[in-house]
Amino acid sequence: MKRTFEVTPWNIVTHKLDPEDKRLQESMTSLGNEYMGMRGFFEEDYSGDTLQGIYLGGVWFPDKTRVGWWKNGYPKYFGKVINAINFIKLNVLVDGDPIDLAKDKVSDFELNLDMKQSKLTRSFTVTKNGHAIEMNFERFISVADKELVGIRVTATNKSTDTVKITFKSAMDADVQNEDANYDEHFWNVLKTTQNASDASIVAITKENPFGTPRFTVGIKMTNETDLNQDPVDQPNDKEVVNQFSGELAPNQSVAIAKRITVVTSRDYDTQAKLETAMNTLSAKVAASSYDDLFAAHAKIWADRWEKSDVEIEGDTESQQGIRFNLFQLFSTYYGEDSRLNIGPKGFTGEKYGGATYWDTEAFAVPVYLGITDPKVTRSLLMYRYQQLDGAYVNAKEQGLKGALYPMVTFNGIECHNEWEITFEEIHRNGDIAFAIYNYTRYTGDKSYVLNEGSKVLTEISRFWADRVHFSERNQKYMIHGVTGPDEYENNVDNNWYTNYLARWTLKYTLEILGEVTPEVAKKLTVSDDEKKHWQDIVDRFYLPEDKDLGIFVQHDGFLDKDLKPVSSIPADQLPINQHWSWDKILRSPYIKQGDVLQGVWDFIDDFTPEQKKANFDFYEPLTVHESSLSAAIHSILAADLHYEEKAVEMYERTARLDLDNYNNDTVDGLHITSMTGGWLAIVQGFAGMRVRDGELHFAPFLPKKWDSYQFRIQFRGRSIQVHVDQKGTQLTLLSGEPLTLDLDGKKVSLNA
Asked: Is 470:570 a contact under the CB 8 Å cutoff?
């Protein structure tokens, strides 16, 4: 655990420039707007260690899969988000000497991410050749104009002499990915223009041998300043620069406002159309003042917070944590484009390749259902429907019927390069089916499940029916050779969670097939014999269980391990994934994240209090929580069991996972999909929110260290505020039709 930022309700702020924590600071101060995003690296050149990263939604490259021993069915490539052209570059020179915070004498440093308005600012006083210059940087990525990034830099002369200030505003296509199998550049520059105060670059991703699309990007910058325009030659064929300079008297200030417009071939099918759009959009934003552009952006963020903010009184650490979670989630995805999804690192780093994982369906869907319009979640469901063709390919590669959704993807085709994850962690098929059920249950809207969703469910069920095998000895259907959510166990037989989800999916699909229209049923072509076979699998599915212990067994053989609790591991060997060999981890009983408990959380109302208690008490002491997704599940289940101290402990871990760098791995990016955990722990955990038969239920408690908390949820056209303090719980219907809900077992009627 390492805390590098101060604890404030609405800001991520530090007054310390620490080169050792530079990458950590860059991760924490990332910005995004779903269309694009970037780490909080500096605009000006920095000669110390840094991870410069700008990423564009849906723009990626197939990095060749490299393994020692190729296996049939192996993915041909590992899809990776690629570092985009560095368009925020803006060097500042004092009397011809460039500012470099890795070398210069600096005082009054502040780095500040304003989460309320989604703005990153940085200020400091730098002394160059005896002259003190106060510098202020600000940056935003607009949610009002998705293609726009705004940067403003102000220099103030704090010395007694006149100094010369030079701004060199540039864009540079000479970039690489740090996390790649080979050190190659991904961008071929097609065209550059460099005028006195504006410039542009059009580039295309290099050719690849896999037939995946190449992406063209057009980026234009315009610069506005009172300084003089300097004639300057273009540095090279990959970089463009506009330069401005002038004399700055003592106490005088000067600013430059840089507007960057980014367009991609995802929206324009020819280079000509792309360039036209780039120039048109650039002219549009250039016609508005910098302050007006920022105000439009801030207004939308205010509307988002009005709908989703969670307020905590009495614990500023928890308050900052939940807002940071929601801020980074919304910076990554807000349902504007159904072609996009939520990468585990979002726009904050290169790890995990920026692709889509099962985290979205399991963890993000319930959060977006609660705090956004249903169309946002429906976009996530449509994303999977639109990629069915790729899922067919993945199943066929394994010689199986139906659809196998990928573990990692940009286009529906599996592009992960670890076999035990790629083709053994198949529970993701069930997680996607569960997300359809979750959406339908929460919204009451069956239009998706009875149309597109029924197709997804049918093809997933066909996969499960082909992937199981029948054990003649046990007269049960089983699934061997899988990896559950606990990735510290590979190639196991009969993972309880996987089997449970497979059985449930088949059962749910049969239920939905009984409700679809004859027209839809005809298209699905599920025969009576097929339905009969699915029902037989449901009736005779093997689920490992130990009745003496009263638990569901994680997988066959798990109870034969040396079952010692995590507390027996020496502190200097944690986290085990950074200290133990993989062989030792696989042989140990230690669980990376909730596995059986993931299933208990998913279907929390289907198990008795005794079953939930027995499983939690058995598995939690064996869990090292070295997955960012782990703590939230345990917080919710602990709250359900009235283990309040454990619930709060796990909430604090999930809400501040990156802010406090719990797992010592935030330097390469934030854990975006786990940012769902804070909201889930409060709403489903502390407030006990459930949906049963279309009705909301709450059973809240107040953590002892909190004075109160409140949140708003969106439910079937209503906005409801839940306020919990030492006096009890107050429910308020803010908008929508009256409704009746359940509070601590009693019916409550709400009217606006």
From this structure: no
The arithmetic mean of pLDDT across residues 725-730, rounded, is 97
CATH 1.50.10.10 matches 355-542: yes
Instruction: Supply the DSSP string of 6-27, one letter for each residue.
Output: EE-SSEEEES---GGGHHHHHH
Residue 482 · residue 492 · CB < 8 Å: yes
pLDDT value at residue 30: 97
**Annotated catalytic sites, by residue?**
487
Distance CA 425, CA 471 (A): 21
Q: 3-class SS at 701?
A: coil
Q: What is the DSSP letter of 429?
A: H
Q: What's the CA gap between 423 and 537, in Å, rounded?
A: 22
- For the chain, the domains span 8-64+74-277, 355-542, 543-654+668-675
User: Which string of DSSP letters, residue by residue, matches 175-219?
Assistant: -B-SSSSS--B-EEEEEEEE-SSEEEEEEEEPP-TT-PPP-EEEE
Instruction: Note the pLDDT tens digit of each residue in 465-482.
Output: 999 999 999 999 999 999
C-alpha dihedral (429, 435, 440, 446), degrees to nearest 10? -40
Question: Residue 527: CB partners within 8 Å, gap ≥ 6?
Answer: none
Structure tokens, 438 = 């979750």
Could you tell me if 101 and 313 are in contact, meaning their C-beta atoms sit under 8 angstroms apart?
A: no
Q: Give exposure, 586-595, as e/b (b: 16+ Cβ within 10 Å).
A: eebbbbbbbb
**Which residues are documented as binding site for substrate?**
358-359, 592-593
The pLDDT of residue 70 is 75
Instruction: Choose the CATH number for 8-64+74-277 among 2.70.98.40, 3.40.1380.10, 3.30.1360.70, 2.30.30.100.
Output: 2.70.98.40
Paired tokens of 214: 């190449």
Residue 534, CB half-sphere, CA atoms under 13 Å: how many? 25
Q: Is the pLDDT of residue 188 over 90?
A: yes
The pLDDT of residue 448: 98
Cβ proximity of 372 and 330 under 8 Å: no
How far apart (Å, rounded) are the C-alpha atoms in residues 580 and 570? Answer: 12
Q: d(Cα 608, Cα 599) in Å, to the nearest integer? A: 13
Q: What is 98-142 written as a DSSP string?
A: E--TTTSEEEEEEEEEETTTTEEEEEEEEEETTEEEEEEEEEEE-
- Describe the crossing of helices 388-397 and 452-467 by its angle, rounded to 10 degrees: 10
Residue 332: closest CA among 588, 83, 33:
33
Q: Is 42 exposed, middle or buried (0-12, 13-18, 19+ CB in 10 A)?
A: buried
- Work out the angle between the directed axes of helices 316-332 and 644-655 (0-180°, nearest 10): 50
H-only helix segments in 398-527: 419-422, 427-443, 452-467, 496-513, 518-524
- Around 421, how many Cα atoms within 13 Å sit in the side-chain half-sphere? 16
Do 686 and 703 meet the contact criterion of CB atoms below 8 Å apart? Answer: yes
Whether the Cβ atoms of residue 236 and residue 104 lie closer than 8 Å to each other: no
CA distances to 76, 139, 397, 418, 721 from 69, rounded to whole Å, are: 13, 47, 17, 12, 56
What does the pLDDT look like over 42-56, one tens digit per residue? 999 999 999 999 999
Query: Hunting for tokens 């960012």 — which residue is that?
Result: 628
Amino acid code (one letter) for 138 = E
Give me the pLDDT at residue 350, please: 85
Evaluate if residue 204 carries a pLDDT over 80: yes
Q: What percent of the residues of the chain are helix, what percent strand, and what percent coil, each to the nearest 5?
A: 35, 25, 40
As a whole-number percent, the residues of the chain with pLDDT over 70 amount to: 99
- Read off the pLDDT of residues 144-178 as tens digits, 9 standing for 90 and up: 999 999 999 999 999 999 999 999 999 999 998 88
Phi first, then psi: what are they for 700, rounded to 5°? -80, 155
- When the pLDDT of each residue in the chain is averaged and rounded to a whole number, the result is 95
